[in-house]
Amino acid sequence: MAIEDDVLVIGGGLAGATAALAAADAGRDVRVRLVTYKQSTLRHASGLIDVLGYAPGAPEEGPLVDPFDALADLPEGHPYERVGSDAVREALAFFDDVAGDAYAGSHTDANALVPTHGGTVKPTARYPVATADGLASDDRDALLVGFETLPDFEAPLAAAHLEATGAPFSARGTTIPFPGIVRDDAKVTRYAHLLDQDEPVTTGAGETGAREALATTVSEHLEDESRVGFPAVLGDEHAAEVRTDLADALGADVFEVPMGPPSLPGMRLEDLLYDALEERGVRVTSGVPVIDYETAEADAVAADGGSGDDRIDRVVVDRNGTEIPHRADQYVLATGGLVGKGVRSERERVFEPIFDCHVPHAEDRYDWFVDDVFGDQPYARFGLASDRELRPLDARDEPEFANLRAAGAVLGGYDFAAEKSGAGVSLATGYVAGTRAGEEAE
Predict the structure, then answer these.
(1) Which residues 6+ apart lie within 8 Å of 215 measured at CB?
(2) Is the pLDDT of residue 297 over 70?
(3) I want to staple 139 with a disulfide (CB 3.0 to 4.6 A). Which of 53, 164, 168, 418 is the partner?
(4) Beta bridge partners of 34
(5) Which of 83-92, 260-269, 297-306 has the lowest mean pLDDT?
(6) Which SUPFAM superfamilies does this entry report, sorted A to Z (predicted)?
(7) What angle do CA 245, 250, 253 make, to 5 degrees?
């Protein structure tokens, strides 16, 4: 017997979670299930929600002030062109409702410039409140603090890079020991846990709480800066409390600098989304790959005597060696791109591995890339082509299946890394795909 749902979302990243939430909110009682195989890529993401940071093909023009001004000029086939700018706005509003007071940026269409751990600034539309006091548009001087056991953040180097970008403030960096941690292989969650629980740690002055010990060490390096930036490890469940305690002790505002993977802000975003899924009654099945599918020919017959479009009847997942069928009326594919292996390449072809949907690409594999490593790489845009309903298209530009939509990085036609548009595309296409699936589910 197949497990029955109205909407089945395949993939547990930002696009998949957004699609499942949107389907559940489609306006009536819709049974939604999300199935995911591997750990969500959110854990490796910055936690920032970027809509469009740079114009496609013109990064030299610098960060976009208002991403919405550029959406109308995007090429045909870009995911934003497929869904339209109104849907991008609706998706951001949807995210704002889900995120609540955990994220900032909804007050303006303009991109915020958020400093990163490398000393660059990233244009982004929504950002965790933990980073709000660190925006590069703020002219207050800043002290960046790194930890000896966390080499991913070289605070003095990051500060120098920030000043070189022309940031309107003086930045200075220092590196200190983190109270209670002496090993350089400690996970970021260990730093967060120490501060979350305010665990006792031993210092030269005796035993004290981790928060007080950290503030005491930093205060020795603080001059006249009115804000202090730390790697994004300042607590998890009690992050706001940790920042407040540190700010009170230092007499300066405290902010987090987004880090590379593994990313605590990404983990917080994942928790936020999956808590919302649970609240909305979305069933989540994790650790199960989709290994097969079956189709059913549509009942309708076209007036000219042709047959209707094929529909996906069921998919089969592998649960510890047992094949379990799942049937739904509508499906959303949100398995990621080349990095997430939602799109795969071999020497002779590029393909989508679950439904074998068509991936447009040159026949000659030497046309998949250019010699300039910093050039405009064709492979960066590999992914499914879709219609405006986000239904994947075959080689004849016809929908592959009547009841399948795609969302996120599995879609092609854009270079998320160069454009700084990855999270925004996942959010917008996940919202549209999930909403349409929820509305059409029987």
Answers:
(1) 245, 246, 249, 250
(2) no
(3) 168
(4) 9, 284
(5) 297-306
(6) FAD/NAD(P)-binding domain
(7) 75
Distance CA 172, CA 335 (A): 41
pLDDT in the model for residue 405: 98
Task: Give the ranges where 220-329 is alpha helix by DSSP (H).
Answer: 239-250, 264-279
Distance of CA 159 to the CA centre of its chain: 26
104: β partners: 127
C-alpha 270, offset from chain centre: 9
Mean pLDDT of 284-309: 69
List the structure tokens of 94.
Answer: 């949807």
Measure the CA–CA gap between 57 and 52, rounded to whole angstroms: 12
Taking the C-alpha atoms of residue 18 and residue 374, their distance in angstroms, rounded to an integer, is 32
Query: Contact 114/127 with Cβ under 8 angstroms?
Result: yes
Distance of CA 235 to the CA centre of its chain: 20
The three-point CA angle 166-169-171 to 5° equals: 95
Residue 372 has pLDDT above 70, yes or no: no
Nearest CA among 327, 349, 315, 330 for reference residue 434: 330
User: What angle in degrees, to the nearest 10, is found between the helix axes of 188-196 and 264-279?
Assistant: 70
- What's the whole-model pTM score? 0.93
Instruction: Give the tokens for residue 110.
Output: 């303009």
Length of the chain counted residue by residue: 442
Neighbouring CB atoms inside 10 A of 366's CB total 8
Q: What is d(CA 230, CA 255) in angstroms, rounded to the nearest whole number?
A: 6
Q: What angle do CA 382, 410, 335 make, to 5 degrees?
A: 140
- CA 354, 319, 288, 391 dihedral sign is positive
Q: Which amino acid belongs to residue 300?
A: A
Nearest to 163 by CA among 146, 145, 129, 139: 139
- DSSP notation for 176-208: EPPTT---TT--HHHHHHHHHTT-EEEETTEEE
Do strands 32-36 and 7-10 pair parallel, antiparallel, or not at all (unpaired)?
parallel
CB burial string 171-189: b at 16+ within 10 A, e below: bbbbbeebbbbeeeebebe
pLDDT surpassing 60 at residue 327 = yes
Q: Which pLDDT band holds residue 296 (cuts at 50, 70, 90)?
A: confident
The pLDDT score that the predictor gives to residue 103 is 97
Helices first, then strands: H and E counts in the chain: 11, 21
Residue 297's H or E segment, with its range, is strand 290-297
